[in-house]
Amino acid sequence: MRAWRRGHSGSAGFVPTMGYLHEGHLALVRRSCEENLHTVVSIFVNPAQFGPGEDFERYPRDEVRDLELLRECGVDAVYLPSAAEMYPHGYQTVVDVQRVARPLEGSARPGHFRGVTTVVLKLLNAVEPDRAYFGRKDAQQLRVVQRMVRDLDMAVEVVPCEIVREPDGLAMSSRNVYLSPEQRAAAPVLYRALCAARESYSAGERDANALRGLVGDLIYPTPGAEIEYISLADDRELDEIEGVITRPALLSLVVRFGQTRLLDNVELG
Ligand code: AMP
Predict the structure, then answer these.
(1) Quick one: which of 249, 261, 155, 262 has its CA closest to 205?
(2) Domain co-membership, 58 together with 185
(3) Is 25 a residue of the active site?
């Protein structure tokens, strides 16, 4: 990968993914193609960011289709390392972002962000891009990566990209294929609830509990939906807000349908 990069001068954009690509991924890829001379995409289902009992083995994969989609987008190179190349025998180094990686997904999935930041650092070292593109869908991941890049003085610009949604509002995700037809039909309630809270915020509501409650009340009656968390947190450090919202905030949630965890969020202010 590095030899390829050294042989291609000029700006490079990089989109790290776990494959099974959808329009959300491709929006990042297209933006990178617009903003850089070269675009590199990686496909790596990173075992280090999955916990025991999570869906690493059954995570959806379709390399042939992914490569075809990336070819159509005009991507210059696709990096497909194996787990053995990334974590050879004797491997023992990790990147551990502290505070911003602790709440929310960090607490629901212990070790998850350590796996993410470690692999993102390794991928960035291999690709040496000028810009790296991350979706706002994984809002905490974006903040954790931004923190790592600042703290470790990394020479890359992190470019946040808007969430791409299905026509009914469901945020696109490789994991949406796990949903049964009934679960898929019910899933848009997440974004509807987040939008209702955002409207209430725009109309002047500043009580964090009232907004979390509004989201919960809309989702709770949905058959099959199990709320894992609803968070209204400070937009930077992701400290949960108790009482009155005075600064930009992130309203995020995880709702489980059966085994499938769906994430979504909106920014307030
Ligand atoms: P993943 O393959 O799930 O690791 O995602 C790779 C990148 O695509 C991450 O930066 C995600 O945040 C981003 N991404 C995934 N789904 C979406 C979406 N619906 N809209 C925007 N970005 C997304």
Answers:
(1) 249
(2) no
(3) yes
Residues 37 and 153 in one domain: yes
- Dump pLDDT digits (tens) for 24-39: 999 999 999 999 999 9
Ligand 1 touching residue 42 (CB < 6 A): no
Is any atom of ligand 1 closer than 6 Å to the C-beta of 137? yes
Domain extent at residue 218: 174-268
Q: Encode pLDDT of 202-243 as tens digits.
A: 999 999 999 999 999 999 999 999 999 999 999 999 999 999
**Ligand 1 atom nearest to CA at 133:** 10
- In this prediction the pTM is 0.98
- Of 113, 137, 161, 176, the one to substitute when testing ligand 1's pocket (max ligand atoms within 8 A of C-beta) is 137
* DSSP codes of every residue in 62-88: -HHHHHHHHHHHT-SEEE---HHHHS-
Please check whether residues 15 and 51 belong to one and the same domain: yes
